[in-house]
Amino acid sequence: MNIFTNNAVLIRAAAATALECDFPVVEISQIAEQESWRKEINRPIYHIHKWWATRLGSVFRGITLGALSQPGADIWAQFYKVHDLAGKVVLDPFMGSGTTLGEAVKLGAKAIGCDINPVSTFLVRQAFTPVSETKLRAAFERLERDVAPEIRRYYQTRDPQTGELIPVLYYFWVKTVTTPEGEVIPLLSRYVFAQDAYPKRKPRAQIVCPSCWGVLEDRYDATDLRCQRCNHQFNPQQGPAAGQYVTTKDGLRYRIKELLPEDGTPPAHRMYAMMALRADGSKVYLPVRDEDLALYEEAQGRLAGEALPLPRTKVRPGHNTDQARGYNYTQWRDFFNARQLLCLGLLLREILGLEDEAVQEQMLCLFSSTLEFNNLFCSFKGEGTGAVRHMFSNHILKPERAPLENSVWGTEKSSGTFSTLFESRLLRAKRYLDEPFEIALEHDHNGNRTGSRKTVASHPVRARRVETWADLDAAEHGLLILNGDSSRLSVPAGTVDAVVTDPPYFDFVHYSELSDFFFAWLSPVLRDRYPWMAREDSSDQGEVQHKDPRVFARQLAAVFSESCRVLKDEGVLAFSFHHSRAEGWAAIYEAVSTAGLQVVATHVVHAELRSASPKSAAKEPISVDAILVCRKKSSVMRPRLGEANVYDCVRASASRLEHAGIKLSAADHFVIGAAYMMILGSIEGLSPEQVQARIDEVKVGLARPIAAGEPADDVLQPISEVAR
Q1: Which of left, alpha, beta for 54 (phi over 0: left; psi -120 to 50: alpha)?
Q2: pTM (predicted TM-score)
């Protein structure tokens, strides 16, 4: 139900789509929350490769279905039905991971996706390229035969019990700095380096001795320990690093950045422990010994003598990269140690030898995806969970003081390696094309939720990928994936039925600064194949990304204006948005208004798992999105609004969601209120400055808590006192 249900009455006489009238916010939010727990499993096609702020497929299925349905259609009643909306065209000018495209083609519509970022274009092309599992397995088996043994050779150690060589799953490293007195200090805040994700339940932990670097086993919270190997007594909870400082054995205190290498190279590292896999399948923690160090040195030596396709580009300055650059990570190859560069280079070289271009590009996509879990910015999450914390757990590239080196090719017990991601990401995405499914909740006879199941609600995705609008126009079902500035689309005016998108986040998160990490590897091997890969980095002057709200508004307005040009007069432009500050909402309002659009309806739905990093770090995390539904101003009759209480409307909407078991924060309440003000601003013709002031007032006025059992319908009633 629209959070401002009777708000839809304002324009219902002129409504052209179901999305303007109503939306099943509770039902969609419930399945969206379920989807968000394991997005890579529940919508694998959008997680074939890393992208940022990937939206939930179930939400966008509902939006797209509503945008292509007639007024009065019951979106929820149609949600699990198989559709064939042949002839309908949906555009996403900020394609990202391809969520809108996937949901549109699953409904039988044609889809156009455009993104200015070449990494986005590449990954979406791979996601929707149908390649048989037989061909992919044959290519994988060839790589496993020809290059995997070389890689595995560098990830093995000798079992001290049997003397046999066994595979290493992970190597534990730590950054070190050297003081003016010559003392080498590891940047460890504590000497406990591995523990269970739920340590109170399973207190066993691995601890490194600061004297002999032996590996000990004790409780995760031990405070007094004597090393069995060297008899050194120490407190495992007190390492030499604390915050931005280190303390020497003599008690001297230094700022870490003051001790970085003067030659401009990244900090030194020490490999001190590993997790290996015994023949019986058990995992064992071992200290690093001379044979292990010799193996790494051998990898270093071989790297120097090999001609491998490795990244050669610099890390450009930016909000998301400056912290890494501050630790002398100035080249993208600096993000990997010598063994990683060698093994990744060997693997990439072998992939480039695959003759079938479609299969080769699928493997290139998988290779690029593997990079996220195989670099010096990864860390150990703990036992009892996926072991590897990937490098993008923070939106900035934050140097990891205690990196975890993964084993690149991997074993059945590995996490985030080429072989495991082949099964969990690539093949899972290809199978989804053949059998796209939705998540459906199950309830007992009392209406209590008992679980969830997968249900097929779409034909297999067989939309043919085309290269031009003419080809798309001629096809019954097609998919046009473009790279370029979405303010200049090669699409005729008035040909698109609906625009459904998720615009970039207004603030400091610049996707291209992060995607450069992948681009540095992909561009050298694809630049001769695709013109959009033949550039210095993945940025473009046409990017919609800026910390200044007015600049951001102008950038976004250019794309929305072009979307308005290609949109049919009766079509809607719908997009998801949330922000914690009024200036962010005002920027969106300005962009919409400048583009000749007007917000005519809004729906608030669950957007993301609340505990997902880095959201969990926020005091009041936002877990909802406002779906803002816009029409061309020329096609909307200007209504007159009756008496309404915005605070009561917000509380009623929040109450409806919370009574359905969806927890909301104070920041979520603000999102609902800000979304409502977008409609009121459009109705009253307010300026962006006035809207910002009104939204700031709403933030202050939402202090009153929701009254338990507050009757939503009664609270919403005043809004129905409207005349056109």
Answers
A1: beta
A2: 0.93
